[in-house]
Protein: HRDC domain-containing protein
Amino acid sequence: MTETAPAADEPVPLLAPRDGLPPVVQSDGALAETAAALASGTGSVAVDAERASGYRYSHRAYLVQLRREGAGSSLIDPIACPDLSSVDAALADTEWVLHAASQDLPCLVEIGMRPRTLFDTELAGRLLDYPKVGLATLVEELLGYRLEKGHASVDWSTRPLPEPWLTYAALDVEVLVELRDVLAQQLVDAGKLDWALEEFSALVTAPAPRPRVDPWRRTSGIHRVRNRRQLGYVRELWLARDRVARRRDVSPGRVLPDHAIVAAAVAAPKSRPELAALPPYETRTARRDLGLWWTAVEKASTLVDAGLPDHAAPYDGPPPARSWPERDPHAAGRLAAGRKVLQEIAGTHQLPVENLLAPDTMRRLAWAPPEELTSETVAEVLRGNGAREWQVSLTATALADALSADAS
Structure:
């Protein structure tokens, strides 16, 4: 294991992997050798994946990086080697160390890799109340090394991958296990290790996220849209763009930017030339598929009222909290009381309040509390909304008291 760099005024630049840049694994034979090497290694394994967010429609992995003591670093091309179940089997009994695991786990599962146990360095940093929990920041603050982040947003679907990009990717796992060890000791010292282990276990067992309802409502600038007819334009253009982007495996924003969708919705053009005259549609990219965009506009313009989307998205939870004072003042009072208690508990334990209890869980409890407010009934509601036991133990009694006091 590399020793922590000595304290210094300036961090030490981490410019190259300590064992040199490994070749990219692109064949079944090389993959088998890599899996065997990883299996023979010792200790935790650092894992990372690079996606082409902003360039591709899919969220698949375009590079997988691993490092384990005794095996060194590995860079695997999951396009050339799309099934990494052999690597998964080699690491079946190994703790995986990831940074912001929830971002990488879905694309790793797609290629046959799923941890049985993990340590998330970003989440550990949050539980320790570090104000900034990016990988480079934690590595610099805790290990004394400086990671260059200049290639974070490049198109990782590029082939062949340039050597500077590969060096950047390899360095992302270079000291990840060392970072894990420092954070784990800090969690022990703070009495928070058991909390972290519960959080990590929840990441491993979390079900696949459900598809978002009405994803078109997240169109940037949609606040400019004022009525249901305009919402219909946004929806039809968004769906048309999504079909094109999916078919071409191109990021939707590169097919048609959000501001072009909103511009058409607000203008409600009456003809194809009128649509083409809108500034966002004068670009070469937008004109390439102008016929598709006009078809979507025509469809939206002819929808009957019953076919237009509602102003608000369907949701199985409480309404937006800003409407509570008018709709249900008692619920608004419970929410305020609950939030105040959570802030106090989070401050006492040096935790971000959103890690103490998910904001949505607090809203659901305040909007529809159990008929009898006790620590047991509140704990049941919290667990039913996904709260971990450490969160329940810290908050249930205090929330029951606060909500009871507000109701009296």
